């Protein structure tokens, strides 16, 4: 029975009409990777690398990072591993990196903005990711992209890291895919242009919601406004999926919305190719996917998008036969 349960956990998520949607895990450590596999993750859609830089007095070296990325890749074997480059700043300040408290940290020096201003620190991480990629399904992902210029600058440093490794005779996956988080409204607006520069998108609804609603996700007085179920956020998700598919890219979603049972019909209906979520929620999300057809999900998504509030969207879905019956 235990073996049967394990086999069931490892089964892919397939809707009733046969449509597949990949269910990946969000992780931050080697221990998380093991949990993710046990919970049936088909891959890792978001490895947050901030943890490697916390609780220390200097940045992790290329060798230290390589060891950790490689250990996680080994646990995942032939599954995808999307490594997101450092996303400090905002609510994650780090004094040894010169990051100080700011008046508006979420509008401040964070994520790719910080890394592009510290190219040596950034390149060290990129070299570690490239070195770990040889023989594994690693992909790289840049956070907080707001402009085309940022993406192009990040790619230039990525190309430099590859040239350096090639010249040193160090092997890496020459076909490694690159992607970006879509989590800033400007990136949604120019998604068609960004799409021509990358292999995939992953939508970060945690940040996208707070930026669309102008409500700090860490401030309890206003955080409830930053609800990813709000039709304004759902429209941004829809627009991003359409731009990705129009350009022939696959698109995932790695914000907390992906772990919400009530969001499954919307996300399947909008055509997301992958969902990445905390490992504990994977079995439940797979189970809900298996109860829906794409057509039913599309109808639910279409109706939900016409509503006036996040609350209305959630009650509309919880009243549907899928959740009532
Ligand atoms: C997001 O913004 O939705 C996301 C997944 O990234 P983080 O929560 O690490 O900012
Ligand atoms: Mg984010």
Automatic annotation (TrEMBL):
It is found in: Cytoplasm. It comes from the Bacteria. Belongs to the PEP-utilizing enzyme family. Component of the dihydroxyacetone kinase complex, which is responsible for the phosphoenolpyruvate (PEP)-dependent phosphorylation of dihydroxyacetone. DhaM serves as the phosphoryl donor. Is phosphorylated by phosphoenolpyruvate in an EI- and HPr-dependent reaction, and a phosphorelay system on histidine residues finally leads to phosphoryl transfer to DhaL and dihydroxyacetone. General (non sugar-specific) component of the phosphoenolpyruvate-dependent sugar phosphotransferase system (sugar PTS). This major carbohydrate active-transport system catalyzes the phosphorylation of incoming sugar substrates concomitantly with their translocation across the cell membrane. The phosphoryl group from phosphoenolpyruvate (PEP) is transferred to the phosphoryl carrier protein HPr by enzyme I. Phospho-HPr then transfers it to the PTS EIIA domain. Homodimer. The dihydroxyacetone kinase complex is composed of a homodimer of DhaM, a homodimer of DhaK and the subunit DhaL. This is Phosphocarrier protein HPr. It comes from Chroococcidiopsis cubana SAG 39.79. The chain holds residues 504 to 828 of 829 of the full protein.
């Amino acid at each position: 029975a235990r073996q049967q349960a394990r086999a069931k956990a490892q089964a892919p998520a397939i809707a009733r009409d046969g449509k597949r949607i990949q269910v990946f895990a969000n992780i931050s450590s080697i221990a998380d990777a093991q949990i993710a596999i046990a919970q049936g993750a088909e891959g890792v859609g978001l490895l947050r690398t901030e943890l490697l830089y916390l609780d220390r007095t200097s940045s992790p070296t290329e060798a230290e990072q390589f060891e950790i990325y490689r250990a996680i890749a080994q646990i995942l074997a032939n599954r995808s591993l999307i490594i997101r480059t450092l996303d400090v700043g905002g609510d994650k300040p780090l004094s040894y990196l010169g990051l100080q408290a700011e008046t508006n940290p979420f509008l401040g020096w964070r994520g790719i903005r910080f890394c592009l201003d510290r190219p040596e620190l950034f390149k060290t991480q990129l070299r570690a990711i490239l070195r770990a990629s040889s023989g594994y399904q690693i992909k790289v992902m840049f956070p907080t992209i707001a402009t085309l210029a940022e993406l192009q600058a990040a790619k230039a440093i990525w190309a430099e890291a590859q040239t350096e490794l090639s010249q040193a005779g160090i092997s890496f996956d020459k076909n490694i895919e690159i992607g970006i988080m879509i989590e800033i409204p400007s990136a949604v607006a120019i998604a068609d242009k960004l799409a021509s520069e990358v292999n995939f998108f992953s939508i970060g609804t945690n940040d996208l919601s707070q930026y669309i609603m102008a409500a700090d996700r860490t401030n309890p007085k206003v955080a409830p406004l930053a609800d990813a179920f709000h039709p304004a956020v759902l429209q941004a998700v829809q627009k991003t999926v359409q731009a990705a598919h129009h350009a022939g890219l696959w698109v995932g979603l790695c914000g907390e919305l992906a772990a919400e049972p009530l969001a499954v019909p919307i996300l399947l209906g909008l055509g997301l190719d992958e969902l990445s979520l905390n490992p504990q929620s994977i079995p439940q999300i797979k189970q809900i996917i298996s109860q829906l057809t794409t057509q039913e999900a599309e109808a639910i998504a279409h109706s939900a998008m016409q509503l006036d509030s996040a609350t209305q969207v959630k009650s509309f879905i919880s009243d549907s036969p899928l959740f009532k019956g």
